[in-house]
Amino acid sequence: MSHASRQDKDIIQLKPKVGISSCLLGNEVRYDGGHKHARYLIDTLGEYFEFVPYCPEVAIGLGTPRVPIRLVNHASDIRAVNSDNPEIDVSEALSTYAESVLAGLHSLSGFIVKKGSPSCGMEQVQVFQNEIPWYAGRGIFTARLMQLLPELPVEEEGRLMDQCWRENFIARVFTYYRQSL
Is the CA virtual torsion 155, 140, 114, 46 positive or negative? Predict the structure, then answer.
């Protein structure tokens, strides 16, 4: 076997790297000190991908456990604030963290985020307006990530439990991966 074909074989055998909300891997980083380990999803997609964990809330200095944050609609601007003290606004920190993560995203071919999270949720995240929740938001970190890198495949773990969504995500990740080689 020639040197070039051995290199090609090695490249083909590498798994694409996919960013993932750290709590989905079983890391105890959630506001309550717990996790949301998605064992089936991790075992299934782990055959195809190498996971790179991210927790925006921990990365910006929020402890574990911590008072949860929530999204609020403030003058038509969605903000991530402390649930007990809305004066504590972490929106800019989450957005800035997403921007800093972009420097390392050249090696990622996709991202799996935690459904419903005010930092990581992709769609239908609870947003409060006058203490009334509605479900039309996107987590601050994920919103910024998707804005800055719209072609990067991003999906919520809940939707990946559906075979069609899962197969579509896998195909999009491998397409993105091949284009980056």
Answer: positive
**Is position 129 within any domain?**
no
Backbone φ, ψ for residue 82 (5° rounding) = -65, 130
Q: Are 140 and 147 in contact (CB under 8 A)?
A: no
Model-wide pTM > 0.85: yes
What Å distances lie between residue 153 and 19, 48, 149, 150, 165, CA to CA? Answer: 10, 15, 9, 8, 12
Range of the domain at 61: 3-66+92-121+138-180
Domain assignment present for 87: no
Strand (E) or helix (H) holding 141: helix 140-148
How distant, in Å, are the alpha carbons of 63, 128, 129, 138, 162 from that of 133?
25, 4, 6, 13, 27
Mean pLDDT per block of 10 residues along the chain (181 residues) reads: 49 82 98 96 95 97 97 91 96 95 84 97 94 90 94 96 96 95 82
From the centroid of its chain, how far is CA 81? Answer: 19
Q: Could you give the 3-state DSSP secondary structure of residue 150?
A: coil
CATH number of the domain within which 26 lies? 3.40.50
| Residue 9 lies inside a defined structural domain of this protein | yes
- Coil, helix or strand for 52? strand
